[in-house]
């Protein structure tokens, strides 16, 4: 990604091997519009083939991560009529978000969510598909859909995968809002910072660890983890052994072993 594309709803900045995405609709607490969904999808499509990017950081501007779906888009869909043979506009709107969040979930890059303020609905879903999630002291998480007479249709499966059915039931069926400490205890986020400075330090440490891990091995490991529970254990372990063999005989495995023996950082750790 030599030239960063222009986006209406996102700010993009590449820092070394990390692409920083800032959701930039502060007037609506970064509510997720159809345009934002399309732009996030386009960015994740582009970074997938960019070997210079190893981590993608998502955060929000104006003190909020993302307050959920955009009410204007909802109103627009209500006023539209499906043409003959076409899906209902609400279906298309909802499903487009689900496709994007699945894409983020399956990205080969390390996805880091840095959360502050409102983390609701679709924003909550984005956090649940991140590999590393960090909460600032102001972060409030919730699944308010049932209190609005709707359902968390596209995020619910990812929430269950993140924290289990029991806790997902409690959060979604009561429409609860919880703080950073409880979100950390439930496993929605991995760390809860007590200050903005600590939040930045936690992010810096996570990105430093990404730099020390081999990019192809990281991508293969993430793909392997996603297969757990969807295949027979015996077949999965057979496949994992084949993946291990290819990795240890490959360039990263050779370099990692030599670097360890020679007591030096491996080549991928030097991104200057």
Automatic annotation (TrEMBL):
Which SUPFAM superfamilies does the record cross-reference, listed alphabetically?
Answer: ClpP/crotonase
Q: Which family does it belong to?
A: Belongs to the enoyl-CoA hydratase/isomerase family.
Organism superkingdom: Bacteria
One of this protein's GO BP terms?
isoprenoid catabolic process
- State what protein this is by name: Isohexenylglutaconyl-CoA hydratase
InterPro entries in the record: ClpP/crotonase-like_dom_sf (IPR029045), Enoyl-CoA_hydra/iso (IPR001753), Enoyl-CoA_hydra_C (IPR014748), Enoyl-CoA_Hydratase/Isomerase (IPR051683)
Q: Which CDD domains match?
A: crotonase-like
**Molecular function terms from GO:** catalytic activity
